Each structure stands twice: as structure tokens, then as C-alpha cells.
């Protein structure tokens, strides 16, 4: 059962985390031409070797038609590849292309560089230690259902 203290902490933490996430998303010039859904699909494909369009639609809570349009755009940009499934010739597997992998790495590098520079310039050594100690609890919050 949440207490008054956890309610207050949540109310302070949520907007700060949301602003940080928005800032990190805006910082990457390599990611400007992609929608949030397109970026999310690229991350999913980076985590998996290959997925079906229908699987991506379910994971992203999108209609198959919307996913098809999204995948067409990513394909036109050269960020994904489509391959016939070796086990079922009727199915098309979607995976990241070499260009897609490079794009994801570039975006991550840009965000990491900015965050590292910001931490180094804004936070004292003691505050950096606090941030490091907060990684565990924040990770558990991400995993909480």
C-alpha cells in the first residue's frame, strides 16, 4: 500500500523522468525522421534476430495495416530487411539491416555522449555516486508490473 512519502516521491520523480526521456529523444539528429513507433520497432528488432509483421503489431499494440505502413517506411529508408521464412515460405521475417543497426548505434552513442557530458558537468562526484546507486532501484521499477 503506497504511503504519503511514496506518493510524494512518485509525484516528484515522474515528471523529471519524463522530461529526461523527452530530452534524450530530441537530442539525436540521427533519429529525427522517425516516429516514436518506428524507433520502438527498430529497438525491438535490435533485441530480436527477426520478427514477423504480425508479432511486431501485437508488441506495439498496432493494427496489422498500420504496422505494414510503418514497415514500408522503414524499408524505404533502408533500415530493415525482409526475408522469406526458411520454415514457412508464406511468412516474411523482418530484421534490422546493417544501416538500421548503424542508426541505432549512432543514436545510442549520441545520447550516451550527451548524458555523460551532462553528468560530468552538472553533478558532483557525490551526486554521481547517488545516480549510480539509483540504477538498481530504477531498474526494479522498470521491471515492475
Automatic annotation (TrEMBL):
Positions of the HTH marR-type domain: 10-140
Keywords: DNA-binding
Record's keyword annotation contains DNA-binding: yes
SMART domains: HTH_MARR (SM00347)
InterPro entries in UniProt: HTH-type_Bedaq_tolerance, HTH_MarR-typ, WH-like_DNA-bd_sf, WH_DNA-bd_sf
The keyword DNA-binding appears for this protein: yes
Molecular-function annotations in GO: DNA binding; DNA-binding transcription factor activity
Protein name: DNA-binding transcriptional regulator, MarR family
Organism the protein comes from: Chitinophaga arvensicola
Amino acid at each position: 500500500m503506497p504511503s504519503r512519502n511514496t506518493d510524494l516521491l512518485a509525484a516528484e520523480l515522474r515528471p523529471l523522468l519524463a522530461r529526461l526521456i523527452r530530452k534524450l529523444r530530441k537530442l539525436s539528429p540521427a533519429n529525427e525522421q522517425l516516429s516514436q513507433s518506428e524507433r520502438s520497432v527498430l529497438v525491438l528488432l535490435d533485441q530480436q534476430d527477426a520478427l514477423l509483421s504480425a508479432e511486431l503489431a501485437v508488441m506495439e499494440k498496432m493494427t496489422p495495416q498500420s504496422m505494414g505502413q510503418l514497415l514500408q517506411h522503414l524499408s524505404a529508408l533502408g533500415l530493415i530487411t525482409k526475408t522469406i521464412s526458411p520454415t514457412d515460405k508464406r511468412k516474411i521475417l523482418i530484421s534490422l539491416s546493417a544501416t538500421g543497426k548503424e542508426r541505432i548505434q549512432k543514436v545510442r552513442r549520441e545520447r550516451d555522449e550527451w548524458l555523460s557530458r551532462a553528468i560530468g558537468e552538472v553533478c558532483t562526484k557525490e551526486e554521481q555516486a547517488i545516480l549510480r546507486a539509483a540504477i538498481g532501484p530504477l531498474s526494479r521499477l522498470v521491471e515492475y508490473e
